[in-house]
Specification:
Shape: globular
Radius of gyration: 25 Å
Strand order of the largest sheet: 3-5-4
Distance between the termini: 37 Å
Oligomer: single chain
């Protein structure tokens, strides 16, 4: 698809209709810039959007795609061929160098069926027009003529996100380098910004959060002993990956040519595609990273049961060794707790300690869990961004659960740390207590400027709630925040029906 997700093709509100209109205009203009006549471009853009809309009808919505059971359908290649007789998967596998596959996961069988229907009912020239458009829209516009780059920015930046001006070219070049040569760039970044001492201190924080989560799980009143023991086994088996890989990726087979930016991008993508395809049939490498070291992000991998913190996020404002523990626990501490909690959110909880998709919950505990997360669904459904668009509480459920759980266990870890040094527990800095500094540190890392268009796009496509609600939604559920700032019942930051899962 050229639009952000399936429902953009079907919503009938004025803004969605306007976006589709802009999309067709963008397609037509780009086809003209790539050499088609105005008449051909108008015809082919209409064809391409019609095919995309037809394919979207067979796709899962973004909420359904969060359910692992709905995107796991193991099949043989011959079974897939039965779904799409007009597409020869054996030939495709041979052409990309895969050879014979014994089995594969067809994430969305209904999409395969719809793809078959589209191929069977569409003429060859129309299919070619659609494929030409998909190729054009996939080329990095940074490396193309200025008119093409400007047209791409107008739609993706201005129309979809409300972006007022293009990022400086040097920033876009750094982003592109990170995307294509992330671990090569990462080595230089780590040498400058993340030494061994930083890695050791981060691990101390992780261990403190793990101990808090263990205590939290051990004392949950709604969980039975049978499920509790399985949860603790899973927690104890979570592996911690901090900063950067132990072994750097070898790019020696990738040819980079000065002055050939577009060619370098294609060769980099070919290198990565081949690297991924070469994994098939081999044991999973749990030491591999999903993001480059400079990335300002962290993630939990449910199929490997590990948490990953890139060196890029272990910098101010998320982590600053010059600041006191309260601020750091409220900032990076909550992020650590967030990722640990992902192992036990509505998606992560479906995987066991070894990363297998297996139900390890008693029916009673599963029911109790679902009752508690439903509270969060309804809470976040009530939040709105500019223009009245509501947050999707089901799409954002995993992240909301992790935000709330991460905040709680990070606070527990801070209290344990301060208890070891009573003098620090009473220390006020600039008039703020340690408890208050913890919550201020949490709020500070999510301070954000966003256009109304970007917020609307986020609530329609992103599993994370907008930053304002990541903060206010979590602290409104946490009585320790209310104590720290002396909030009273009935005030906006005190929820009478506070939600708690972990």
């Amino acid at each position: 698809f050229g639009l952000p997700e399936r429902d953009f093709y079907f919503r009938d509100d004025p803004k969605s209709v306007e976006i589709r209109k802009h999309y067709v205009q963008y397609m037509q203009k780009m086809l003209e810039l790539f050499g088609e006549s105005s008449a051909d471009a108008a015809r082919d853009s209409a064809t391409a959007v019609e095919i995309e809309t037809s394919l979207a009808k067979g796709s899962l919505d973004n909420v359904s795609r969060r359910n692992p059971a709905k995107v796991y359908h193991r099949m043989s290649l011959s079974q897939l061929d039965e779904l799409t007789p007009s597409f020869n998967w054996n030939n495709f596998a041979d052409d990309i160098g895969l050879g014979k596959l014994s089995s594969l996961n067809v994430a969305e069988p209904d999409f395969a069926r719809q793809m078959q229907a589209v191929i069977a009912s569409t003429g060859l020239e129309q299919l070619k027009a659609y494929l030409r458009w998909r190729v054009i829209d996939s080329v990095p516009s940074l490396f193309l003529p200025a008119k093409v780059d400007a047209e791409s920015f107008h739609f993706h930046g201005e129309v979809l996100s409300g972006q007022r001006e293009q990022q400086p070219r040097w920033k876009r070049c750094v982003i592109s380098t990170d995307a294509d040569l992330g671990e090569a760039l990462g080595q230089a970044f780590v040498q400058r910004a993340f030494g061994a001492e930083s890695k050791a201190r981060t691990l101390q924080l992780v261990h403190a959060l793990e101990q808090s989560l263990e205590r939290d799980i051990s004392t949950l009143p709604w969980m039975s002993e049978a499920t509790r023991q399985q949860a603790l086994i899973k927690l104890h088996k979570i592996a911690n990956k901090i900063g950067y890989p132990d072994k750097w990726r070898d790019y020696s087979s990738l040819k980079i040519i000065r002055g050939d930016a577009l060619g370098n991008s294609y060769r980099s993508n070919e290198f990565e595609t081949r690297r991924q395809l070469n994994k098939i049939g081999k044991p999973v490498d749990p030491s591999e990273w999903g993001y480059s070291p400079p990335t300002v992000n962290a993630y939990y991998n449910p199929q490997q049961n590990n948490i990953n913190f890139m060196a890029g996020i272990l910098q101010p404002p998320f982590y600053d060794p010059g600041l006191d523990d309260a601020v750091n626990f409220g900032a990076i501490g909550v992020v650590i707790g967030h990722e640990l909690t992902h192992g036990f959110d509505d998606e992560g909880r479906q995987f066991d300690a070894g990363g297998s998709l297996r139900d390890w919950w008693t029916p009673e505990d599963e029911k109790a869990f679902k009752q508690r997360v439903e509270c969060e669904v309804q809470e976040y459904n009530g939040f709105t961004v500019s223009g009245g668009e509501h947050v999707n509480g089901r799409l954002t459920l995993g992240e909301n659960t992790a935000d709330n759980g991460g905040l709680r266990i990070a606070y527990m870890a801070l209290m344990d740390t301060l208890a070891k040094d009573p003098s620090r527990a009473q220390k006020s800095i600039e008039g703020f207590t340690p408890e208050q500094r913890f919550f201020l540190g949490f709020a500070q890392v999510w301070c954000t400027n966003a256009t109304p268009e970007a917020l609307r796009l986020q609530v329609q496509t992103n599993p994370h709630s907008p930053p304002e609600f990541r903060v206010n939604g979590s602290v409104g559920n946490f009585d320790e925040f209310q104590k720290a700032f002396h909030c009273k019942a009935g005030q906006p930051m005190v929820r009478a029906d506070a939600c708690r899962v972990w």
